[in-house]
């Protein structure tokens, strides 16, 4: 497709899909100022939003330095999503010290003492392309590298477990039945080749090669290998004590960080991730709450989404991205901001936001 045709197509997408941030901020003058090679690279980054007009972000980075290399195009999109004005310098700081804040939901209300909580960070090795640009060989090579780190983690009494691969022929390969069972248990990620956004971006390429999951013995510490990012490192607990869960993740992340190549970071955007929505802390902290009053029995999320947005929270069904609420009003809530906020600020927003939504729920 000629440059003018691409530019015209993206302009059409933006008119019809104002929520597509890539199309909204596509900078035709900047694009045409690039040499052919850089134009092709930028179009690959923007391909998902060009071929999936209903995208919200519409772009995925292909290499760790893409965000800095293509900042004139990507920075406005990033700022729009993360709510950072153009005149404010982006500064990503980190704070994992959970000792100061007591964030135990059970202390708010006994009915919140056993909520399902999950916190994950996305990390990518600086020594590989990002998943959208990996070859099959690179995906398998990275999985082997991660497996060697897991061999050390298995020896740790606090994090010991097993690595489960879905790479055909892997020494850790699990059966199709076990894979299905782990997906059903909300531990393992689903078949990525069914996701049109990830397919166009190349992130689901060579499925299922180079994919797997580390799971600790008590199944509260998991590491996805080869999903949207090289690694998704997560802690999950039922309870209400966010501090304990964060501490579990913080220590596990520190151990893995010493066993793997350096993680990809940007001087401006912090932790580098495939999707610009995950930049910065690269962290998604979430919990599931039953809010039947605020969701009209799970039939209408619009009011809750507005209340949550006012609290800096996003709402989705408990079944993951693009899922609906349960009939009992079960929803997944999580702080939206991940860039320019620290890990502790994300935790505090989750706790404060959950407390505020619960107060609204029970006063109905
Ligand atoms: N389909 C992509 C998703 C963006 C946010 N979710 C992620 N990264 N899992 C879009 O641009 O709509």
Describe the protein's topology.
Layout: H1 3-16, H2 21-24, H3 28-33, H4 36-45, H5 47-51, H6 66-69, H7 71-82, E1 115-123, H8 136-155, E2 161-165, H9 176-184, H10 196-201, E3 212-216, E4 221-225, E5 231-239, H11 242-259, E6 265-266, E7 270-271, E8 283-290, H12 302-310, E9 313-317, E10 330-335, H13 343-363
Antiparallel strand pairs: 1-5, 1-8, 2-3, 3-4, 4-5, 6-7, 8-10, 9-10
The protein binds D-arginine (DAR).
Write out key terms for the chains shown.
about 15% strand; eight-stranded antiparallel beta sheet; about 375 residues; globular; 10 strands; single chain; Transferase Creatine Kinase, Chain A, domain 1
Task: Describe what is shown at a glance.
The chain has helices at 3-16, 21-24, 28-33, 36-45, 47-51, 66-69, 71-82, 136-155, 176-184, 196-201, 242-259, 302-310, 343-363, and strands spanning 115-123, 161-165, 212-216, 221-225, 231-239, 265-266, 270-271, 283-290, 313-317, 330-335.
Q: How would you sum up this structure, described in words?
A:
The chain is of the alpha+beta class. The chain has a domain at 3-82: Orthogonal Bundle (Transferase Creatine Kinase, Chain A, domain 1), CATH 1.10.135.10. It has helices at 3-16, 21-24, 28-33, 36-45, 47-51, 66-69, 71-82, 136-155, 176-184, 196-201, 242-259, 302-310, 343-363, and strands at 115-123, 161-165, 212-216, 221-225, 231-239, 265-266, 270-271, 283-290, 313-317, 330-335. The strands form 2 sheets. An 8-stranded antiparallel beta sheet has the order 2-3-4-5-1-8-10-9. The structure holds D-arginine. Residues 55-58, 197, 228, 275, 277, 321 line the site of D-arginine.
């Amino acid at each position: 497709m000629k440059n003018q045709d691409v530019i015209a197509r993206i302009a059409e997408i933006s008119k019809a899909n104002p929520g597509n941030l890539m199309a909204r901020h596509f900078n035709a003058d900047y694009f045409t100022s690039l040499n052919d090679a850089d134009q092709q690279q930028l179009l690959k980054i923007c391909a998902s939003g060009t071929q999936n007009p209903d995208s919200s972000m519409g772009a995925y980075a292909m290499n760790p330095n893409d965000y800095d290399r293509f900042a004139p195009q990507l920075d406005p999109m990033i700022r729009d999503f993360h709510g950072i004005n153009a005149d404010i310098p982006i500064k990503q700081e980190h704070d994992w010290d959970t000792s100061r804040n007591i964030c135990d939901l059970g202390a708010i209300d006994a009915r919140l003492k056993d909520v399902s909580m999950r916190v994950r960070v996305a990390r990518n090795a600086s020594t590989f392309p990002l998943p959208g640009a990996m070859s099959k060989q690179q995906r398998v090579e990275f999985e082997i590298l991660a497996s060697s780190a897991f061999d050390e983690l298995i020896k740790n009494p606090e994090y010991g477990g097993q690595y489960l691969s879905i790479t055909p022929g892997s020494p850790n390969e699990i059966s199709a039945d076990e894979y299905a069972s782990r997906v059903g248990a909300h531990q393992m990620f689903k078949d990525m080749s069914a996701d049109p956004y990830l397919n166009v971006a190349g992130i689901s390429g060579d499925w299922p090669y180079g994919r797997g999951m580390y799971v600790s013995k008590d199944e509260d510490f998991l590491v996805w290998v080869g999903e949207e990012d090289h690694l998704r490192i997560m802690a999950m607990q039922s309870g209400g004590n966010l501090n304990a869960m964060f501490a579990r993740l913080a220590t596990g992340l520190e151990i893995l960080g010493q066993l793997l190549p350096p993680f990809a970071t940007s001087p401006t955007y912090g932790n580098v991730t495939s999707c610009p929505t995950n930049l910065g802390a690269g962290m998604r902290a979430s919990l599931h709450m039953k809010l039947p009053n605020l969701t009209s029995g799970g039939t209408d999320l619009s009011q809750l989404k507005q209340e949550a947005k006012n609290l800096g929270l996003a709402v989705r069904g408990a079944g993951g991205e693009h899922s609906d609420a349960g009939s009992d009003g079960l929803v997944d809530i999580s702080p939206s901001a991940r860039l320019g906020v620290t890990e502790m600020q994300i935790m505090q927003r989750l706790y404060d936001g959950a407390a505020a939504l619960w107060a609204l729920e029970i006063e109905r």
